[in-house]
């Protein structure tokens, strides 16, 4: 075999000379291995970047909350993971927290910082704001997660929307500090980046973001079962 032969060639003869294979073997040993290690490092880095790109583009992406509109559920400077993959087969449900590209009129100076809101109205439903609450198909939503129990108001009350196919009606949990579907109307499904599923920073706030439960008559039980927000 080649390896034992190479090792034997390095043994000194009676006069202290080295065998004829020593020079080529030593060159391979000194110059070949560093080049191979460098190639392995480059391959590892490229593979890591490709995996990172695929994961962030198609599977899950971290976002920092910059707005107050989802208090107390999410606070500014908290970090969430946004699931981009599962909505391809598990569509958005009432109560989901979604991250989406803002409507064009709400883009300031070319800054397209994504918005984060809660889905309350689904395609084909009628959403109304009256009596300081949200009503869907004539059923009042009980929303224990609203910031300090604020009333839900709109520029004109009562106000009514019929949600078109392929669109969602979204509101912030901090109703008095949220620009949402009350002002810019339902958002297109194509604007939605994904569903926020996990708050992971700061560490003392880490946890899955639950989907609230709503009255059964609303949307014929479309909401995904989950633990109601405190």
CATH class of the largest domain: Mainly Beta
Question: What fraction, in percent, of the residue positions are helical?
Answer: 10-25%
Task: Please report the total strand number as a whole number.
Answer: 12
Going by CATH, the homologous superfamily of the largest domain would be: Umud Fragment, subunit A
Q: What's the Cα radius of gyration?
A: 29 Å
Average pLDDT number: 82
Low-confidence runs of at least 5 consecutive residues: 1-20, 220-230
As a percent range, the share of strand residues is 15-25%
Corresponding CATH architecture of the largest domain? Ribbon
What fold name stands as the CATH topology of the largest domain? Umud Fragment, subunit A
Distance separating the two termini: 71 Å
What's the helix count?
Answer: 3
Structural class: alpha+beta
Order of helices and strands: HHEEEEEEEEEHEEE
What would the principal axes of the Cα set say about the shape? elongated
Number of domains: 2
Question: What's the story with the biggest beta sheet?
Answer: 8 strands, antiparallel
Task: Throw out a few tags for this protein.
Umud Fragment, subunit A; 8-stranded antiparallel β-sheet; alpha+beta; 24% strand; 230 residues; 4-stranded antiparallel β-sheet
Structure description:
This protein is α+β, with helices and mostly antiparallel strands and 230 residues long. The chain has two domains: 21-62; 65-220, Ribbon (Umud Fragment, subunit A), CATH 2.10.109.10. 22% of the residues lie in helices and 24% in strands. It has helices spanning 2-9, 22-59, 181-184; strands spanning 60-64, 79-83, 97-100, 115-121, 126-130, 133-136, 139-140, 159-162, 167-171, 187-188, 192-201, 207-208. The strands form two sheets. Strands 1, 2, 3, 4, 9, 10, 11 and 12 form an eight-stranded antiparallel sheet that branches. Strands 7-6-5-8 form a four-stranded antiparallel sheet, with no helix packed on it. Strand 5 (126-130) and strand 6 (133-136) form a beta hairpin. The termini are far apart.
């Amino acid at each position: 075999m080649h390896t034992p032969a190479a090792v034997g060639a390095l043994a000194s003869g009676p006069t202290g000379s080295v065998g004829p294979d020593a020079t080529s073997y030593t060159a391979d040993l000194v110059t070949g291995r560093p080049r191979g290690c460098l190639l392995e490092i480059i391959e590892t880095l490229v593979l890591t970047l490709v995996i990172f790109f695929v994961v962030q583009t198609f599977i899950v992406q971290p976002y920092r909350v910059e707005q107050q509109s989802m208090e107390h559920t999410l606070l500014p400077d908290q970090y969430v993971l946004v699931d981009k993959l599962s909505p391809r087969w598990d569509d958005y449900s009432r109560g989901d927290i979604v991250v989406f590209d803002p409507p064009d009129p709400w883009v300031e100076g070319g800054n397209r910082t994504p918005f984060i809101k809660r889905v309350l109205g689904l395609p084909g439903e009628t959403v109304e704001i009256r009596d300081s609450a949200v009503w869907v198909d004539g059923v009042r939503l009980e929303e224990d997660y609203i910031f300090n129990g604020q009333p839900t108001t709109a520029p004109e009350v009562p106000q009514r929307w019929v949600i078109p196919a392929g669109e969602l009606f979204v509101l912030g949990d901090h109703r008095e500090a949220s620009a949402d579907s009350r002002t810019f109307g339902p958002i297109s499904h194509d604007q939605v980046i994904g569903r926020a599923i996990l708050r992971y920073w700061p560490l003392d706030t880490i946890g899955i973001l639950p989907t609230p439960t709503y009255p059964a008559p609303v949307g014929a039980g479309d909401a995904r079962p989950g633990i109601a927000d405190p």
